[in-house]
Structure formats: structure tokens, C-alpha cells
Amino acid sequence: MEHKIIFAGPVGAGKTTAIGAISDIEVVSTESKATDSVSQRKETTTVAMDYGTLNVGDGQKVHLYGTPGQERFSFMWDIVTIGGLGLVVLIDNNREDPLADLEFYIQAFRPFIRKSSLVIGVTSMDKKARPGLYSYHTKLSELGIKAPVFEVDARERNDISVLLQALLAMLDPGVKR
């Protein structure tokens, strides 16, 4: 059995890094030099998608797709989610208003979330501790969404593994982890 998991969130939240940390293959990436305001945050940005795979045993494979974070590439969001079973939203806690970012991505992906499962990973909590995880749960509740929220380091395979295990358990409790 094969699963397709989507990673979404704002620029710099760690989508490309997270897929690279967990993928069993070298990530196929569409990184390009950032030329707009994104260049103040990072040198490159995803313009179409990232792709990796994770073998989870017994012939089961998870296909990992990362969406571009910039809203101007949002046309890719609908394309990448086709056939997807679950969504990982990564939020950079060090951004100006990470709860607004969370709300934006929940609203943008709401049609997909309605027919799939969702987990939230909050990055950069080591740089900025507030808002805390409780605030994310509160925001999700305000939006009528139930989803687990984890503090993660996108560079750490184990942290990304926890996100994917939680998501896969919600999708199919029989998936080997």
C-alpha cells in the first residue's frame, strides 16, 4: 500500500528540511533563488513542490510532497493535494504572527482537511517559546478543527517521524510504524 502525505505552511517553516530529514531517497526539489521579500528570510524557496519517499515496511511506502509556502504559488496547493491522504502543516513559531499563519493555512487547505487527516508541527520554538502549544490548540478549536500539535525540529528525523506516525495512525491504524 502507498500513501501520499502533503507538507504545507509558510516560507521558512521547514517543509523542505523536514522531507529531507525523513526521506529514504534524495529529495527532488524545485528550489529557486528567492528574489522578493522571501530573500530577507532565506536564499532559496520552493516554487512548485518537494518530493521524497519513506518506506514503512511490509511493502508500504509514504510519498512525501511539500508545497510552496508563498501564496503566489498557491495554485500548486490544489494540484499537489490530489490523491493525498493527510496533511502536515508546519508553522514557524519565530514568525511575526504564527497563529495567523496557522489560521491562513487551515483555511486555505480546509477542503482537503475535510476529507483527510491533519497534524500540526511547530518549528523554531527554541527561538521563540510563545505562543505555546496550548495557544495552537485553542486556535484550532476556534476554527472547528481537531488535530494533534507537536513541537518539532524539522532537521530531526525522529521529530518528523512522530508527526508522520500520528498522521498515519489517524488515517489507518493498521499501518506499521
UniProtKB/TrEMBL annotation:
Transmembrane segments: none annotated. It comes from the Bacteria. InterPro entries: Gliding_Motility_GTPase, Gpn, P-loop_NTPase. Signal peptide: none annotated. Pfam families: ATP_bind_1. Keywords: GTP-binding, Hydrolase, Nucleotide-binding. Belongs to the GPN-loop GTPase family. PANTHER family: ATP/GTP-BINDING PROTEIN-RELATED (PTHR42708), GLIDING MOTILITY PROTEIN MGLA (PTHR42708:SF1). This is ATP/GTP-binding protein. The lineage of its organism: Bacteria, Pseudomonadati, Pseudomonadota, Gammaproteobacteria, Pseudomonadales.
